[in-house]
Amino acid sequence: MRIDAKEQKRLQGIIAELRSDRLPFWNLWREIANYFLPKRYVWLQSDKEARIRNAKNPYILDSTGTTAGRILASGMMNGITSPSRPWFRGRIAGFEHEGDAVALWADEVVRRILFVMSESNFYNAMAVLYLDLVNFGTAAMLIYEDDDTVIRCYNPALGEFYLSQGFRLSVDTFAREFKQSVKQLAKNFGEENLSETLRNKYRTGGQQCLHLYDVTHLIEPNYSGSDVPSKFAYIETYWETGAISQGQVLARRGFNELPGIFPRWELTANDSYGTSPAMDALPDVIQLQHETKRKAQGLDKMINPPIVADIQLEHRPTALMPNGITFVAGNNNVGAKPLYQIQAPLQEMTEDIREIQLRIRETFHNNLFNMISQLDTVRSATEIDARREEKLVMLGSVLDRFESEALEPAINRIFSIMERQGMLPDPPPEIEGTDIEWQYMSILSTAQSAVAAAPVERWAAFIGNLSPVAPEVLQVPDWPELVRNYGSDIGVLAKNMKSREAVAELTETEQARLDAQEAGIAGKELVDAGKVLSETDVGGGANALQQLLAQG
Prior knowledge:
50% helix, 5-stranded antiparallel β-sheet, 3-stranded antiparallel β-sheet, alpha+beta
């Protein structure tokens, strides 16, 4: 496939501008990679550096920072998008009172989406995405259609991709520069789309097919005058980096929605890339490595100090191991002795290292996910819940951003793919053409919703305590709606609640039964009274009146 010179220049200009925008973050990312994930991000180092660091890691002596980052990533994975439980549900705005049909349809849609996620590599890719996010503050995951598993997810490594924001400060442009072999390029894009050089290598076969070549990939909003139909919201273009000057591209196609998610931990102003807990913890991690090294050096010098020896011992065998003996000629008290004595404050250094480790774990919010195991005494469930809610405040804004930048676009992307492939049930007629909304019911989302539901609990408890002295307060709440909304806030599924119509019918039936029961009791009392009257010997005159008055 070929493009004209104007389009070629435009594509090259976009990549150049994206590279310039990313440059201020480059050195910081390199330092983060050195101290947290040194073997993972080869795109942040030269080929020579990669060869050296693959042989030895010179930066990490204490793995607290790396471990703390993995704990946070794993905690978010299990707390937000756990593969073992539903973590979102569907809702149609304005149809909450339309009975079971809409709610059951939305639940079935969610069930099918979760099934596709579990059968694909979605959760494996999400685990990598969380690790990138907590360490670098920026992550990326591409979601493509797949013939075998419906969707297929890919995690571009930090350092190979670029991001740019739209006017709403959400990512709308993604690019990356990466390498693929000739064989991979021919398989992905077709032999006919390769440059002449690569086609010849592919036809030659053998080791020629395994050579790696630079590829550039760009996803951008569709623009006026493009060769992609305007019905598509985004354009994707692949090209051989060295062949773009010839107007040759590997592939070019359109997408109805952005085919990827690009979450950021926290943003500053108009930056396209986010900040992370690892960036906050970096000074402590560097200090930890320094103190760990100095403590080891001090301990080593105490156990195996530098030695000053008599010149007579030069080139003579010596035994410096424990219980070793070195014999010296003469009685002039010459021999070997320590050059200097060192008494390193090992206890103080150990305490300081422990404090640094604690600060690093707190920066990575490990106390939120390890809270129960770190308690020194047994606590009540109420106290544990209160502590969790207090700590969740620290992740509130991050979770909100992650839902809007990662979860919602990912679910919408998968929903759209399944809808185009006819894999979703037909919606009820009354909601035809209506957009479905997603509500998150993961452990962390539910816990935050429970924080919002706490006032309802306090209000209900207050009414219950007040009702013995003021029974009329029980008439203030709309109890069925209060219970229904509370269940929704804490993540109870719609299928586990009776519809409002069913509840109304049951209430009406129960009221009719109570009315009939009361009517039966009243009728029985009237019959008994009539029987008493009929059996009364009224006699005559005053005696009859007195007996009637006595029997009441």
